[in-house]
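#data-curation
PF: Archiving a pair of folding outputs for the training set. Convention for this channel: one message per protein, sequence first, structure tokens after, nothing in between. First:
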Amino acid sequence: YIQEAEKRWKLYLSDGMTENFENYNWFDRFETWTEPCAIVDSYILAVQLWQHTGKPEYKEMAEYIYYNAIAHTQRWNGGFGCDNCPGLVSGNALKVHADEAHWCCTMRGGEGLGSAANYACFQRARTLLIPFYHSCVFETTIGEGAVSITEESSYPSEGKISFFITSNTGGKITLKLSAPSWTKNHQLFFNNEFVPCQINNGFVTLTHDFTKGDKIEFVFDQKTAITGGLNKKNTDSSQVKLFYGPLLLGYEGKEEFRIDPNETIERLKDGTFRLKKSQTPLSTIYQLTDRKVWSDSGYQKQILFRKE
């Protein structure tokens, strides 16, 4: 069954996913719109494929979907709506198609957010896997005892995650912390002391008999990247997308912008982004209920760029 699920996932990835990781409402109908119902399904499936196969690419795709699709379709009022499908047919800009579908999308959007909370930690015997970073508290039984851990995260804006042990009566446990392929310069600290770490299958590992007050800190930088399109029928080889870590970057100008083939992306000290050669400002589409993302605001953000 897993092999069949992976086969269908590959079909969806090549033919059903838009350039910001939403969905084409019908395969090959690029003029249509997206549906958070299907986006949430794809997110849940990606996580469960990682859960059952251990392949890091599924975990990473789940992050792309969460930050660039689920987060973008949640509107400022908390509900969920539909977007267009950027590409050769509908243009290179991401736009709002429907402000909210409260009878359908909002319900499934809530399921997506609930799933994201549920996926903050997975347990396998005495091992706690942290595949996604969210500020939260998780508690679980370990053997005949229990552990409670508070997580504080600045991810994905920055690569700094802290874990505080608030109680542990379960003895020695192993923490596995996600280190996606877009991260680099990893540093692990236990009670402010540096701990050498290696990445294995997308995680760094720390095993200890933790006690109340222990602190674990995981720090890393995130890479920028310029990649091609997902759907080869609705994009061509001259179009590229811009990323910081898992976050898709866009340009808010009304006129279509082209980039130099040798362009690079800069992250500035204030957390904003720009193209180094042209000094063109960029911003993420990870918008967390921004009021601008609404049909009557004229909102659009270019996410596909042709090379000059």
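PF: Second:
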Amino acid sequence: MKSDDDAALVLHPIGIARTPYAEKADAPRQPRAAEGVAGVIEIRRDLVDGLADLDGFDRLIVIFGFDRAHRTSSLKVLPPRSTTKRGVFATRSPHRPNPIGISIVRLVRVEKTSLHVLDVDLLDGTPIYDIKPYLAYTDAFPDAKAGWLEGDAQTVVAPKARASDPRAPYEVVLTDAAREACAFVEAETGLGLERRIREHLGLGPEPHAYRRIRREGDTMVLAVKEWRAVFVPRGGE
């Protein structure tokens, strides 16, 4: 049997991602939460021949590195959608023994060594290790079970054409004043405050290690950078 050192694999980036997300807190959790967000994957010039015939595919599987995730020896992690620690291999956590992730993006066009894509959830500057075409006939399994995500939450019935999230998101309703305030913040600072509020509270209104939520009397407060969103859970949630 080979030692760990003998079996080690050295990966060299084939390119880099250029996206709107400069900080970890800015990036969506999954590509489905980044629908329509544009980015560019810049491939090394010496690999340009490898992009031949790629422009006929609608979607790509991007294999990348979690270069800004802190290393940990823990094999149990607390996912944003759980109040219980789970085995790291049963999660999409970026804190893994090998900091490698996958993302599926929509390909818009290929321009020389630049891949223009949509539905980008990667941080700007993320190293790209490989790209493969997404093939629906072999890569899509809409009826596949979702493990613990189904076990302690209401399951959503998936349509045949497209699998739904197994855990229904919380409905987040903003007042007119709140939407106006969010629009002002985005215009002045570029921070997509409304999107961040909807993403965080869509996971649940209770305090969590990954969400800056605290109780204040009969209300709750969500912190997004230096901004605060006051909200009230409804319907007994």
